[in-house]
Amino acid sequence: MSARQVSHEDRQPLTIDRRRFLQLSAASMAMAAGGCDVAPPEEDIIPYVRAPEHLVLGRPQWYASSFVLRGIGHGVLVESHQGRPTKIEGNPEHPASLGGTDPFMQAAVLSLYDPERSQAVYHRGRPSSWDQALAAVREALKTGNGAGLRILTGSITSPMLLSELNRLLEALPEARWHVFEPVGRRASYEGARMAFGKPLETRYDLSRADVILSLDSDFLS
After folding, report:
1. Which of 4, 13, 14, 164 has the highest Cβ tally under 10 A?
2. Which of 48 and 131 is assigned the larger pLDDT?
3. How far apart are the first and last CA of the chain?
4. Are 58 and 82 in contact (CB under 8 A)?
């Protein structure tokens, strides 16, 4: 590829006639207005007849809660406006977060308002109901051994929930429990399996390090 300098004399002014200008203007206006031809749905704004206790409009309320990431609960504080969670921060009194936060915690509140989130029960890609789902589970339990029953969850560290799942699998020996986690976490488990012979959870003791060199590993995420 070669380049050359263009002098002022070589430049040609951009010419456009009136007809072409009106055509482009009309097309631009049509494109700009195309997304606004549908009126928003009508909604009623109804004030409180009896406002909830301690609610002051415009003043947020904070609630202590927990955020589960990869099966581990982290203490959080949730900012709420008129019953709507709007912000999540770490709880400084919880040892898992000490008031700190991360991108996963910050983005968790978006799942409450994600229009693509699942809002109903689906069966083979089609909308269903809880009654039909329970009927399908009962049908699978009729065999007495759980054949055909599959349970899909994320990582679970709750002793109570683990004991309930183990009791279910003991009662239904042919049922299967599947755990899904992102590839990155599964890869770390496999690396620990290769090094130590079993999957382990990596925990860093940064207080014992003078210098930390990180190569393609966001260990603080």
Report:
1. 164
2. 131
3. 45
4. no
